[in-house]
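Dear support,

I submitted the protein below through the web form. The confirmation email said the job was done, but the results page showed an empty box. After a refresh the structure appeared. I'm attaching both so you can tell me whether what I see now is the final result or a partial one.
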Amino acid sequence: MTDGAVAAVDLAVLDSSSSLSAGDVVFSPAAEVRLPLAGAAGERPVEFFNGTGWFLAGTAQVDGAGAARFNAGRTGSYRLTGATSDSLIQSVAPRVFSPNGDGRNDVTVIRVDNPTGLPAGGSVYDVDGARVADLTPGPAPGLSLLWDGRHDAGQPAASGVYLYQVTVGDRRATGTVVVVR
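What the results page shows now:
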């Protein structure tokens, strides 16, 4: 496993007579997946491989007894991710973004390591240190935050470098993103 994965699983439905994979199967309702996972209780991001890359698909609940569980909506490859160090920030994507409404790179998503489940929050600042906006919950609340390139009042932020600060409990991390208009 690479890229911060702490556990991985491939889900397949097999034909009972041939033991061959039945292909892409959608589960309705979603199937609950349970797998062993040592570590602290809390939440971990779950990613799904769509054939070209990994994307955030939800969260897994990790209990104190060494088990993780999450819901899977279809067959395929899933992985649980988590920091392998003390780093709070797992990734920032895209780091350079263009919030112009074209549906591509309109927001930046900051993924955080948050096994405690404590609220994640943060703010964005310009290079002079003036607060521009609060980060909002991302695709996996508690595990990701996003910024749409706008001030809190809704007006677009100018092109340039911006600083962000993320907080989870008593942990803090900072970094930079770039707005291109």
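Response: this is the final, complete result; the empty box was a page-load delay. Residues 1 and 8 are 7 Å apart (CA to CA).
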